[in-house]
Design brief:
Blueprint (H helix, E strand, L loop, with lengths): L2 H23 L17 H13 L5 E7 L9 H15 L4 E5 L5 E6 L2 E6 L9 H10 L14 E8 L5 H17 L7 E5 H35 L2 H24 L11 H8 L1 H16 L4 H28 L7 H21 L2 H8 L14 H15 L1 H19 L17 H12 L4 E9 L8 H18 L3 E3 L1 H12 L13 H14 L3 H4 L9 E7 L4 H18 L5 E6 L1 H35 L2 H25 L10 H24 L5 H28 L7 H32 L17
Antiparallel strand pairs: 1-5, 1-6, 2-5, 3-4, 7-9, 7-10, 8-9
């Protein structure tokens, strides 16, 4: 089949496949699900899912903090009237299960068969203000939970439907904000926190930032392509190929029912900059052949023949770099690795189908720099090559010093994460969360499962006394600012039975008294605040609380001390406990981060080692290739340690991705060297010729990669910021190592044996 006819057929097939991709991409949705960041397959996750099925999720709530007017307290009747009106409004909203507010908090009194709920606050009776405030400050569970210690702010807690999705969640938040405005609360007067708030903000920002990053990347890459090729087709064709691969990649992701989240939002930008590599190598080689006077058809065939193997290997190593992220137990990272790896392979397919078809159908370009005038890139690269070899001792010495310093600095990296890790410290959402940590109990949930020993119920007096001891430890030593458990329920019933007197808020003294109280508990168990503390058959209880978001390092220490305390002070025949909850699951991710990173890097290194061994059958050459790619990784690890950047979910992917991308240029370099060595007996001349042939593409692709990743530093998410900054730095250091260390190491350690070359061998490299 003639090449032009084949090109038209290829374009038709690709157009049909692209149309299918457009259909699926149109169905793609943005999503942020906090639960997706739990460690998949972990026994603790299975346990928590069963636990939450019995007691409910610990993060299905929204905290609304309201500040009193300047110079006033929350006990002002006018302020309390507005709070009460807002509470009633929220309670009537769809998807709101229950609202807890200072104005609907009551002191229950049990008389006969009825319960009388006496409000703590009476805004309609100003004369009772002093009496009410005194009672509030004496009542456990109100100050620091519903009312701040300085009486300058109150909290309204909205218990929402389980796992509420973004659309109804956004609708609820919008209604609340509208009512706040109607009640006269300015934006500075109120604060919102909770999973629903983070979900809404994160998704909106993802959509906005994706557009910003793509726009910046297109502008930057277009400029670099024009600077490199100085022709319209040298700019348009790579953009068409890469945008096509993004379309295909997102189409595949949508076909598998995966949404765009905090991690997969990086896929288009990642693919845009990474996918340029093959197109630049192809066009650079094509233009070079045209410059030597070769016909368009022959130039294209030579380019495909020589570039195919090297580009295929580089696509393989890059995709493996992403595929290794599938070792992660965190679903968003798993999906990001899987679909970005697939998209990289799709980019390779398009680079060797769509790009050649378009080049074949275009007229032979007029080169801006005729061959007889020489190639400016050759001159620059030739001088660089001579300078590097002339100062090889300096290059090696500086590299060694940087390496030693980086390893020492990298040892300072710590694995630490928090609930709002990806937001900068001055982000308005994070400042709202900090408000609740400063004025109230905090936003980090705590959950402890309580199971009575054999033959006992949760209402046995020894069980309750041990539960109370644990409560006291959590409040005094662990750092909880609020706690509720079956003990809370029993104490509340005892107080209600004894006229609502605060001094009666304690556990009963005898089993006989306890039995009388238990018969009354069923009346209280219907109240929303007590409903989820004990199962109806009293076979299991729940201890729940809130505290500041102390970070996973501190939380791990607190949990270790708690487990030791429980082992030493809890009798398993009386009470058995197990730490659970969403915060505990997020903390558990840290245990897997280092292992996942090491596993991913190990797979990458093994694959590169096998490729080099197949090409050169030399262990020395394997080390020669690995060193220039590992040095930048270690230097950036040193930068992280020096800057105090913690290892967390978002930053744990940096090294695996960076190594997989950085090794691309090395694969191209050594595959070209392998080709040159088939015709050149002198290793020095072969390395120099390869340096001149591959140097331009290496520099241009690296600039595009660094520039593309640098657009991510404009993100409002800290994780995305560090991904862009640190991968960009890794690639920048990588191109320097590629152009300095690599040729020095090849000439120093590779033993070339030209006598083994007896006859022409088909070209392997590109």
């Amino acid at each position: 089949m003639p090449l032009r006819k084949l090109s038209y057929s290829v374009l038709l097939v690709l157009a049909l496949l692209s149309a299918v991709s457009v259909y699926f991409v149109a169905q793609l949705r943005f999503n942020y699900n906090f639960n997706d960041f739990y460690p998949a397959g972990d026994p603790d996750l299975d346990y928590y899912q069963q636990y939450s099925g019995r007691f409910g999720n610990d993060n299905d709530y929204v905290l609304l903090g309201l500040e009193a007017p300047a110079g006033r307290t929350v006990f002002e009747p006018q302020f309390l009237t507005r709070v009460d009106s807002l509470t009633r409004f929220i309670q009537r909203r769809p998807h709101v299960v229950h609202v807890t507010s200072p104005t609907n908090a009551t002191n229950p009194v049990l008389e006969g068969l009825g319960v009388f709920n006496v409000p703590y606050l009476h805004p309609e009776e100003p004369a009772r203000r002093a009496q009410d405030s005194a009672l509030v400050y004496r009542t456990p569970g109100l100050i620091g939970n519903l009312i701040s210690k300085d009486a300058r702010a109150v909290t309204i807690l909205l218990q929402t439907s389980p796992n509420l999705s973004k659309p109804p969640g956004d609708s609820l938040l919008a209604a609340v904000r509208t009512e706040l405005s109607r009640q006269g609360f300015a934006e500075a007067d109120y604060h919102l926190a909770g999973k629903l708030v983070a979900q809404s903000i994160f998704v909106d920002r993802l959509q906005r930032e994706l557009m910003v990053f793509m726009s910046l990347s297109v502008v930057l890459v277009t400029g670099l392509l024009w600077f490199t090729f100085r022709t319209w087709w040298g700019v348009v064709l790579p953009l068409v190929v890469v945008l096509g691969s993004i379309l295909w990649g997102l189409g595949v992701m949508s076909a598998f029912g995966v949404s765009i989240d905090l991690m997969t939002a990086l896929l288009p930008v990642m693919l845009f900059v990474v996918g340029m590599s093959d197109t630049i190598h192809i066009i650079t080689r094509y233009v070079t052949e045209l410059g030597y006077g070769t016909s368009k058809r022959e130039s294209l065939l030579i380019t495909l023949k020589e570039s195919g193997f090297g580009s295929g290997l580089s696509a393989l190593t890059t995709s493996i770099g992403f595929f290794t992220l599938m070792t992660s137990t965190i679903r968003p990272i798993y999906n990001f690795g899987l679909f970005t790896g697939i998209a990289v392979l799709l980019t390779f397919v398009l680079s060797f189908t769509l790009l050649p078809a378009m080049l074949m159908l275009l007229r032979k370009p007029q080169l801006r720099i005729p061959r007889q005038e020489g190639h400016s890139w050759d001159g620059v690269l030739g001088r660089m090559f001579r300078t590097v070899l002339a100062r090889r001792q300096w290059v090696v010495a500086i590299s060694a010093l940087l390496l030693i310093g980086s390893v020492a600095s990298a040892s300072r990296i710590r694995i630490n994460s928090a609930l709002l890790d990806d937001l900068s410290k001055n982000d308005p959402v994070k400042l709202d969360f900090r408000f609740f940590e400063r004025q109230f109990a905090g936003v980090r949930p705590f959950e402890l499962d309580l199971k009575p020993g054999p033959g006992r119920t949760i209402y046995d007096l020894p069980v309750l006394r041990q539960t109370e001891q644990i409560e006291n430890y959590l409040l005094k030593e662990y750092g909880l600012n609020f706690v509720a458990s079956p003990v809370t329920l029993v104490k509340s019933v005892r107080k209600a039975v004894n006229g609502g007197l605060l001094e009666e808020y304690r556990l009963p003294d005898s089993d006989a008294e306890l039995q009388r109280l238990v018969s009354k508990i069923k009346v209280f168990r219907k109240k929303p605040e007590f409903r989820a503390l004990v199962l109806p058959d009293a076979s299991e209880g729940r201890m729940t609380g809130r505290m500041p978001d102390v970070g996973s390092i501190r939380a791990d220490k607190l949990n270790a001390d708690l487990r030791q305390y429980l082992a030493e002070h809890t009798d398993a025949t009386v009470l058995q406990t197990r730490l659970t909850g969403s915060a505990n699951l997020i903390d558990k991710n840290n245990e897997n981060l280092t292992l996942n990173m090491i596993t991913g890097m190990s797979i990458d290194i093994v694959m590169v080692t096998l490729i080099v061994l197949v090409l050169f059958r030399s262990v020395r050459m394997t080390l020669v290739v690995l060193i220039p790619n590992l040095v930048p990784i270690l230097i950036v690890a040193g930068v992280m340690g020096l800057a105090g950047v913690h290892m967390k979910v978002s930053t744990s992917i940096i090294f695996t991705i960076a190594f997989g991308i950085a090794v691309d240029d090395t694969i191209h370099f050594i595959s070209k060297l392998k080709l040159v060595l088939l015709k050149e007996r002198s290793l020095f001349k072969a390395v120099r010729k390869t340096y001149l042939m591959a140097g331009k593409a290496v520099i241009v692709t690296s600039l595009i990669l660094v520039g593309g990743f640098s657009t991510l530093i404009f993100s409002s998410f800290d994780g995305t910021f560090y991904v862009g900054l640190l991968i960009g730095l890794t690639l920048l250091f990588g191109v320097v190592a590629e152009l300095t260390l690599l040729p020095i190491l090849i000439l120093a350690f590779y033993k070339h044996r030209p006598k083994e070359i007896r006859q022409p061998v088909p070209a392997l490299g590109g």
